[in-house]
Amino acid sequence: MTQSSISKALMMFFISAFALGTLWGTTPGKGFPGVTPGKPLTILISFDGFRHDYLNRITHPGFVAYLNKCYRASSLKPVNPTKTFPNHWAIATGAYPRDNGIVGNSFYDSTLNDVFTMQRKESAWWRGTPLWIEAERRGLTAACAFWPGSETAFSGDRPTHWLPYEPSRNYHERIDSLLSWIDGPTPPRVATMYFEVLDDIGHREGPDSPNISEGLSVAGDLLVRLETELALRGMLESTNIIVVSDHGMTALQESCSIELESVMDTTGFRIIGSGNLVYLYRQPPPNIDSLQRSIAERVSWVDVYAPDDSLSDLHMDASGRAPAAILMTRPGCFFVRKGRPFRGGGDHGHHNSHLEMHGVFFARGPAFTPGNYGQLSVLNVFGIVMGTLDR
Q1: How many separate domains does the chain show?
Q2: What is the pTM of this model?
């Protein structure tokens, strides 16, 4: 057996063991082939909407050289729903939405009798313990230059350094903030950063737009600048930089769209969501099979799920927050709101079994052995990050 095949076999073993929860307990990542724990600084960077196959479209010379020094997963599989907040929170906590509470970008909580939106910061919404709070409770300094949930206090605990989210904040200013913390009296041992550039282009123009290449060049500039700044400080070789994304993107098709009211009777339902993902709240809940058959008589590209459908890899049955039914469209298809014109572009939110929904994982630093590796899950990232911090 070659070294490559041994590595692949070991990777499959460790991922399987992680999924069973039997190998490492709370820090599963430190057992992955190519990952060595115990280094001084780890930076976790999210490029929202960075689809896994965008890596094949990179022409930025500095970015190409950067990737050649990285541990590269074939893709990063998101949790369902394949939306921004559920997946960033799954990355931060290592838990499914069922357990960490963030079952969508927007959802209803029957206990709170209130609706979550992406502006909510109250701790009652955010279940689980994110990696920056876990680090602080271990006595390590943490910093967040943006990340969903990072503006929330957990039993009074916050990261030592954090910024309120400002989408208009210049990308290089975000790096400046991180560098000021690194240069300050309480430098972090772990930090997060967040960039929207690829998600913005993907939504506006679709994943096949030539401007995705421009977004990739922006990402390359940011990574090369961060690498250069760390090198100037003599820190590059002792810093782990992990780059992830929360989901991929698919192009919308006008021929595959319909109004929700045209496929079902919505009377009596609280409806949250639109596009490719709709939550239906009602007591008593509808019969899932009957609803699926009824919708299938009108369109063939809508799937109806119960939130606890583990066979479909949903894991969305969070206490008090589970919809009675979940409607997901197939890639490219979507529900339109009455009277709104087709806007084109792209979207995400389809089932995570579709490869177009998968993101990226690539990492460089002393904890990582460069090379091509198998698929990872967003649920693996928490353990990998915490594993690099073990002392």
Answers
A1: 2
A2: 0.90
